Automatic annotation (TrEMBL):
One protein family per Pfam: Phage_capsid_3
The protein's name: Uncharacterized protein
Amino acid sequence: MRLNELSHAVRFKNKEIIDQQHIPFNLREYAKDGFVDWYADRLSMMFFIQAARYTAPWMKFDGYTTTIKPVHYGFNEPLEPSKLRIFRSGNKKADEELTKDDEFTLSLIDDAVKRAKLANPKIRSVHVNGESVYVMYLHPEQVMQLRTNTDAGQWLDITEAVCSESRAKTPIFDGSFGMYNGIILRESEYVPHGVHSKTQEPVLSVRRAVLLGAQSVILAYGRKDEPRYHLVEKLFDYDSEFGIAAKTIIGMKKSRYTLAYSTQGAQDFGTIVIPSFSKEI
């Protein structure tokens, strides 16, 4: 597990400068709020690169094409999904083989649950208010396919499953759009594309949904007995410019283990990747 420094900084005119007087808000507070958004996006990028085992050299993220560097995947280079922790519609062997007939359906969720329960070792669920649940992240295009491929009554049951009072007050259900077969369904535009098995380039017609069990991804910080994030403020150019940097020491990794006395080889721990066809917008 590797950790390294991750930081982001901004500079702007100080409060005594005329530029600051032209705007009705405090730039210092605005910058701090911006750091929260920046780190939220960066952690999301790290998480989905690791969880979905995205190994392509670049990705589309927030409308930009980003060349992937260690700071983007949490300083621990992701590997391809292990052979028993990825499956596709129609038993396709590679992401580039998926076509418009391989859209996301409820049967893929059922198959993922079966594989999670029969995995060796079993992918451990999370216990919430006496329930054993998994979490699955889908891209908005996959959610749309799921909605259109499901009859109206069944879709209503899926969405209403997270609306009970006991579930609504539980953090793990917060932000989910439904529940099916013991899986909390969540949507994220950051679910990555597929990866070509030979060229390792992104397959833009595919998205990689991912089922998560307990302890599916490791996140570590390197600031013992101190706040995880540290703000540094500094003045420049005879106090005419003000700068703020937000720093942390962090690492993220998707674990993989070899089971003793087993011939199945090293397998990803706590995740199953489900690529499906998803037209590029």
